[in-house]
């Protein structure tokens, strides 16, 4: 970015990142309304749903990213925003019916020693 020398430009350059602070994107909220989002939860955009109100650019980008299932952590990394901010934005999109979430299956029990041994043998074979 070329500087014109004004004092107002001294704090900003191309690497400064988003001009809006994360709390302005969330209206000052620090937690999502309703559900919380685990880092490994998968987020998918619902097809054919029209937003009830215009989306903020970050929300529109989330919907675009989530045409295929994406984890909450990947959304935060892709947008280069703090995880808390992304969780609030996801909560708003979920409330509006624009996305759905899927939690990964939980292991009901720990793997057996036999399974771990078989995995180890397979890895050694690589």
Task: Describe it.
The chain has helices spanning about 20-25, 55-65, 70-80, 85-95, 115-125; strands spanning about 40-45, 70, 100. With about 130 residues, it is mainly alpha-helical. Helix 3 crosses helix 4. The radius of gyration is 20 Å and the shape is elongated. The termini are far apart.
Characteristic key phrases:
single chain, 126 residues, mainly alpha, three-stranded antiparallel beta sheet, 5 helices, 37% helix, elongated
Write the layout of secondary structure elements.
Blueprint: H1 22-25, E1 42-45, H2 57-65, E2 70-71, H3 72-79, H4 83-95, E3 99-102, H5 113-125
Antiparallel strand pairs: 1-2, 1-3
Total count of strands: 3
Shape: elongated
Strand content: 5-15%
Low-confidence stretches: none
State the helical fraction.
25-40%
Strand order of the largest sheet: 2-1-3
Mean pLDDT: 78
The count of helical stretches stands at 5
Cα-atom radius of gyration: 20 Å
Major sheet: 3 strands, antiparallel
**Multimeric organization:** single chain
Structural class: mainly alpha
C-alpha end-to-end distance: 50 Å
Helix-strand pattern: HEHEHHEH
């Amino acid at each position: 970015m070329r500087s014109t020398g004004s004092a107002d430009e001294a704090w900003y350059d191309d690497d400064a990142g988003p001009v809006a602070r994360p709390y302005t994107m969330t209206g000052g909220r620090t937690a999502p309304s309703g559900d919380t989002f685990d880092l490994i939860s998968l987020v998918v955009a619902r097809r054919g749903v029209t937003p009830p109100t215009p989306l903020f650019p970050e929300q529109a980008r989330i919907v675009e990213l989530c045409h295929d299932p994406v984890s909450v952590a990947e959304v935060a990394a892709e947008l280069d925003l703090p995880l808390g901010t992304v969780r609030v934005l996801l909560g708003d999109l979920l409330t509006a019916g624009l996305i759905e979430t899927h939690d990964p299956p939980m292991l009901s029990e720990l793997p057996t020693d036999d399974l771990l041994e078989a995995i180890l043998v397979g890895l050694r074979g690589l």
